[in-house]
């Protein structure tokens, strides 16, 4: 027997080496850390269907990753140091494939028997999924059907051809182990039921992984486009448009077909594989690495649900980067909503085959187009395709999260109300760049330069930047948001109501607002803090944007320690190393300057870098918002009662929450404020006095410097609020409309930016003033009269007086000088 096993092992080893002369694998989850294996327990690796080639690939990857194996005590021992088995036997001959019958293998039943006979012994069963080529089915494509690793099980000849065609693009995924003891404990006296239960768990697991990796079957594009035109909603839209425009129905139908053809993606696995190779080369050329965090969230969501990926939008690279990360981690790339401006020659067809579907910026006045687009989205969701869109609409030019636009979120909710058999899960994604590729063009646009239209020539100019280094990139996946749970909170009886394609329930806007807020705040709760953001935050908090090297290093370490002391969220990631490492990195990236000096080198920001660094500071500003707001109250007050601090911060919080998309509900914020006060006391940034009073640190101390710079992280936001309040009080209640107040506030902010040398372009951003005014109306601080003029009561004067606590004397005088002028 030992001789037989030795010969068998030698033959299999030879076959494995021959196979890997051709086969190339991409593997995920094959580390002890990822699997969480207990070294004290034996391990068995299981594949779903009996296949010699799959068995050889599995054995090679286990050996290559140095993963632990089973013991001689196990009935499954088919390699010198590892245990493997198949869940189901192969049925059929050389030319016969077809779906496997659920007939468990002898090794599987022997393992269950072993578990029942040895109740004290546990076995870790690691399911392993293997895909040759990762190609989903595509209707009306014989070659695709025959030579792809699809949901059906291939026969031996077909498997040989699949390996020949796709062997160099093989994906292997190791998954979390299943405890044999836990599964069969319930059926110690019934071996048949124990067999069925373990088989069902493993079968379900393999099905869910296959769903996530391959996705639903891809319909032929012509079939999909033609099907859209035949839907009831589009037929009615065609009839209405024909009647309203006095146009023959056939002509309108042709227009609807052209709309559908303009919109629809044409995802091609060949294109995706090609793009994978190109992008791998591109990332290695321009980036120093891509850090992916919490990807398991997306893997779990994709197994049972239609996933909507909602990333923040900072760069055109976002489209490519997220699809690349998902594909490399064993997930089917999503269909991506892209602006019609990207449907340009050469680029457009490639993006379309990579999964992009194109949408016009506005189609409010084109009901026919709107109906076709809505029906396309409905098909995506009901068939279970993963979809990606940017809730911000456009790229953020300031580095902050932009207010979500309701359009795509509303379409998603309405589609789900029509047919909610397939769950929809939103997966927020934070994409953080240490150096954004479009940074310089963003500066020009913020200064008033017209945004350049996308073109092939512009793309060629961008390609010249590929010789530059843009640092590292972080892709952080946030906590998933189940759409059904959001609807339950807003309208718990939604499942009992009927909805058609055009119906918009009265509570829809409330549901969209709730979902938008959760998506934006969850993206921000997944932020990746990097060395550039830390250096920018500290240096921009100084008056001259320069600081002693040692002091800068200490402050970066101190503020990072502040984030660790009271973590904003478990999905926030902090950079490795310390302040000294971060400073060296910023210097290597060319974003800070060093001025040698005998008493200690000076680190500073100069020229356009000083403005560009506000972008990276804004990426993480929300993390420091509450502690910065607390210490800013001591700008003009040496001490305050604790309850007064909590009151003032809670009054300002709704506006900060709306602007920075903070995650804490308003009902919980008092507790959060008190916890931050305790942390600030512990770190010496506040001092405790008698009678529940708190004071700032003593002047001239290191603690006072830390507190003062921390307060400046949020001070410009508060100054903008005070500008608006000052103008309101200048003109009086009932004198200004919201648009006039917005315009006056923007002009005064721009003036102060010049007078005080403020380098933050968003300081006089109209949209921020518009949001602040809208929130005051929402919170009842402002009301409107019959002429749409803003009215307020005495409460506004009290808030304005309290807000003066955070302003320096010079800025109070500058605001007062303007607001006291005659209207």
TrEMBL record:
It catalyses: sn-glycerol 3-phosphate + an acyl-CoA = a 1-acyl-sn-glycero-3-phosphate + CoA. The keyword Transferase applies. A motif (HXXXXD motif) lies at residues 312-317. The keyword Acyltransferase applies. Its EC number is 2.3.1.15. One of its GO terms (molecular function) is glycerol-3-phosphate O-acyltransferase activity. It is a peripheral membrane protein. The HXXXXD motif is essential for acyltransferase activity and may constitute the binding site for the phosphate moiety of the glycerol-3-phosphate. One of its GO terms (cellular component) is plasma membrane. Pfam families: Acyltransferase, GPAT_C. Keywords: Acyltransferase, Cell membrane, Lipid biosynthesis, Lipid metabolism, Membrane, Phospholipid biosynthesis, Phospholipid metabolism, Transferase. It is an enzyme of class 2 (transferase). This is Glycerol-3-phosphate acyltransferase. Pathway: Phospholipid metabolism; CDP-diacylglycerol biosynthesis; CDP-diacylglycerol from sn-glycerol 3-phosphate: step 1/3; Lipid metabolism. Belongs to the GPAT/DAPAT family. It comes from Marinobacter fuscus. GO terms for biological process: CDP-diacylglycerol biosynthetic process; fatty acid metabolic process.
């Amino acid at each position: 027997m030992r001789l037989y096993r030795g010969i068998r092992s030698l033959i299999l080893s030879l076959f494995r080496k021959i196979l890997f002369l051709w086969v190339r694998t991409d593997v995920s989850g094959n580390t002890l850390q990822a699997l969480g294996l207990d070294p004290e327990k034996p391990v068995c690796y299981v594949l779903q269907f009996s296949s010699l080639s799959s068995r050889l690939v599995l054995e090679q990857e286990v050996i290559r990753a140095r993963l632990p194996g089973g013991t001689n005590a196990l009935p499954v021992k088919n390699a010198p140091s590892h245990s493997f088995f198949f869940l189901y036997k192969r049925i059929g001959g050389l030319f016969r494939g077809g779906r496997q019958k659920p007939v468990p293998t002898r090794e599987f039943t022997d393992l269950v028997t072993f578990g029942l006979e040895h109740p004290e012994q546990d076995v870790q069963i690691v399911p392993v999924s293997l895909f040759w080529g990762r190609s989903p089915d595509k209707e009306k494509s014989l070659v695709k059907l025959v030579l792809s690793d699809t949901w059906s099980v291939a026969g031996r000849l077909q498997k040989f051809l699949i390996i020949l065609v796709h062997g160099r693009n093989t994906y292997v995924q190791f998954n979390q182990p299943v405890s044999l003891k836990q599964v069969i404990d319930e059926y110690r006296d019934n071996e048949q039921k124990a067999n069925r239960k373990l088989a069902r768990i493993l079968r379900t697991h393999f099905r869910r992984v296959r769903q996530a990796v391959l996705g639903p079957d891809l319909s032929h594009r012509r079939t999909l486009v033609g099907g859209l035109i035949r839907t009831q909603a589009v037929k009615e839209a065609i009839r209405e448009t024909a009647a309203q425009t006095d146009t023959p129905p056939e002509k309108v139908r042709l227009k609807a077909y052209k709309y559908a053809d303009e919109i629809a993606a044409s995802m091609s696995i060949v294109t995706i594989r090609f793009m994978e190779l190109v992008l791998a080369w591109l990332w290695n050329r321009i980036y120093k690495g891509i850090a992916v965090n919490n990807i398991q969230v997306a893997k779990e969501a994709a197994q049972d649900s239609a996933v909507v990926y909602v990333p923040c939008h900072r760069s055109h690279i976002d489209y490519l980067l997220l699809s690349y990360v998902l594909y490399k981690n064993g997930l089917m790339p999503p269909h991506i909503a892209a602006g019609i401006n990207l449907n340009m020659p050469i680029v457009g067809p490639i993006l379309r085959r990579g999964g992009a579907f194109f949408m016009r910026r506005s189609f409010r006045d084109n009901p026919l187009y709107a109906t076709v687009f809505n029906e396309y989205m409905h098909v995506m969701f009901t068939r279970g395709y993963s979809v990606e869109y940017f809730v911000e609409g456009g790229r953020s030019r300031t580095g902050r999260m932009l207010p979500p636009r309701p359009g795509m979120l509303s379409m998603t909710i309405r589609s789900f109300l029509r047919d909610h058999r397939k769950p929809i899960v939103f997966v927020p994604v934070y994409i953080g760049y240490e150096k954004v590729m479009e940074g310089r063009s963003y500066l020009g646009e913020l200064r008033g330069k017209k945004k350049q239209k996308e073109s092939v020539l512009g793309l060629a100019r961008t390609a010249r930047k590929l010789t530059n280094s843009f640092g590292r990139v972080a892709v952080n996946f946030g906590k998933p948001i189940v759409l059904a749970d959001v609807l339950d909170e807003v309208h718990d009886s939604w499942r009992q109501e009927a909805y058609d394609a055009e119906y918009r329930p009265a509570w829809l806007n409330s549901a969209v607002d709730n979902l938008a807020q959760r998506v934006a705040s969850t993206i921000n709760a997944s932020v990746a803090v990097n060395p550039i953001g830390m250096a920018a935050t500290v240096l921009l908090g100084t008056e001259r944007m320069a600081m002693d090297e040692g002091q800068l290093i200490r402050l970066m370490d101190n503020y990072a320690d502040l984030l660790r002391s009271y973590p904003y969220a478990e999905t926030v990631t902090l950079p490795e190393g310390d302040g000294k490492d971060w400073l060296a990195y910023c210097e290597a990236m060319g974003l800070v300057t060093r001025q040698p000096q005998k008493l200690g080198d000076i680190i500073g920001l100069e020229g356009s870098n000083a403005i560009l660094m506000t972008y990276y500071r804004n990426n993480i500003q929300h993390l420091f918002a509450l502690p910065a707001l607390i210490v800013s109250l001591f700008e003009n007050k040496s001490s305050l009662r604790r309850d007064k601090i909590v009151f003032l911060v809670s009054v300002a919080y709704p506006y900060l929450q709306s602007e920075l998309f903070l995650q804490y509900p308003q009902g919980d914020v008092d507790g959060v404020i008190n916890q931050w006060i305790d942390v600030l006391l512990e770190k010496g940034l506040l001092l405790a006095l008698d009678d529940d009073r708190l004071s700032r640190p003593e002047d001239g101390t290191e603690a006072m410097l830390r507190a003062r710079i921390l307060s400046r992280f949020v001070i410009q936001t508060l100054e903008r609020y005070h500008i608006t309040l000052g103008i309101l009080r200048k003109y009086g209640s009932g004198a200004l409309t919201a648009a006039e107040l917005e315009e006056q506030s923007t002009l005064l902010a721009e003036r102060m930016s010049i007078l005080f040398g403020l380098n933050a372009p968003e300081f006089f951003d109209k949209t921020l003033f518009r949001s602040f005014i809208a929130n005051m109306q929402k919170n009842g601080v402002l009301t409107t009269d019959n002429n749409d003029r803003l009215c307020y009561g005495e409460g506004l004067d009290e808030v304005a007086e309290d807000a003066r606590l955070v302003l320096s004397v010079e800025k109070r005088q500058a605001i007062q000088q303007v607001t006291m002028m005659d209207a």
